[in-house]
Amino acid sequence: MWACPAPFAKGRTNSIPKQLTKDMQSLDIEALNQQIYIDSAFIEKLNAAASRIIVGQNNMMERLILGLLCRGHVLLEGLPGLAKTLAIKTLSQAVDARFSRIQFTPDLLPADIIGTMIYNPSTSQFTVRKGPIFANFILADEINRAPAKVQSALLEAMQERQVTIGSETFQLEEPFLVLATQNPIEQEGTYPLPEAQVDRFMLKVKVPYPSREEEQEIIRRNLSGEVFAKVNPIVHPADILRARESVNKIYMDEKIERYILDIVFATRRPGEYRLRNLEALINYGASPRASINLALAAKAHAFIRRRGYVVPEDVRSVCHDVMRHRIGLSYEAEAENITQEDIINKILDTVEVP
Fold first, then answer.
1. Phi, psi (rounded to 5 degrees) for 294
2. Does 231 share its domain with 312?
3. pLDDT digits (tens, 9 = 90+) for 231-256
4. How confident is the model over 312-323, as pLDDT tens digits?
């Protein structure tokens, strides 16, 4: 098993695992580490800016940044009042990007999201009026409050990065990221997301309650008004696009690729991985998007850790967020109160780590 080395620091180099293949050893990994260190410098700035507004929730902020690095949309699931909306708004302010908030309600129409054609009597022509989807950061607040027709209006934008209004198609400006929230408890008046749309979210992040100490700090900041402070832009969209290129350059060994495939295929054919007891619990396994996104997320996780190559710990760290919404539970699993997390934990404990 590879050991996860200490974060790269200026003036020293990352220790490279001895088990690396000859292909990687032939690369100039030290030069790659140096480049990653330079290109990832803005991560610290983003975290510092967010910490001035948001108390705790470090995992949520890291996953939002990870989705930004991978061009992957993020679904945040948590109870009201856990700073989901505030985190997204803070990130958009720090990146100097355009932000749109769409409050999903049962009476929302697709045209309220993507825009529509407006007739101009003076010219006797129809003109396009663009909707709030034309922004860099889209907050789809309580996305499961709107019916499927409205939810599907996001599909083309999320997958193809384009919007069609009438006979015209418009490309969306990069970076483009859909960050959606939903309440897992209150189901009255909600419309569960179809599996095809859930699968288009790269990550599904569960947002927990803050700790006692964190909540005490939240009280103090709200009473003092600090939480209402505005974050000044510290990162330009060009920095994000350059960071994405660096993420693509991060080395992933063939052993890591096989490890990712083993994890995904264990959800489809658990019997082949000494997990026969899971066969009755899984209705359907993870899609090929799980393999793609698990590899991308592992690379981005290595980038955030300022490392030029992926280790198994990167895969394990992001596995739950990538996989939990891509595994269908059977009635037997639901009757026994077995969750997707339980299944993923069992798979990670059983599948051999390179």
1. -65, -40
2. no
3. 788 888 888 888 999 999 999 999 99
4. 999 999 999 999
Q: How far apart are CA 130 and CA 132, in angstroms?
A: 7
Q: For residues 163 and 178, give the distance between their C-alpha atoms in angstroms, rounded to a whole number.
A: 14
Q: The domain that contains 75 carries what CATH number? A: 3.40.50.300
Three-class SS state of 263: helix
Q: What's the CA angle centered on 78, arms 108 and 131, to 5 degrees?
A: 25
Write the DSSP symbol of residue 24: H
Domain match, 77 and 28 both:
no
Q: Are residues 237 and 205 in the same domain?
A: yes
CB 266 within 8 A of CB 282: no
For residues 228 and 106, membership in a common domain is answered with yes
pTM summary value: 0.83
Tokens 């009026």: give the residue: 129
Q: At 118, which amino acid appears?
A: I
| pLDDT tens-digit readout, 280-291 | 999 999 999 999
Return the pLDDT at 3.
Answer: 44
Residue-number span of the structural domain to which 191 is assigned: 41-249
Asked if 117 contacts 165 with a C-beta cutoff of 8 angstroms, the reply is: yes
Last residue of a domain, one of 231, 249, 267: 249
What whole-number distance in Å separates Cα of residue 352 and Cα of residue 344? 14
Residue 343 contacts residue 281 (beta carbons within 8 Å): yes
C-alpha to C-alpha distance for 72 and 140, rounded to whole angstroms: 15
Task: Point out the least confidently predicted range of 138-142, 162-166, 192-196.
Answer: 192-196
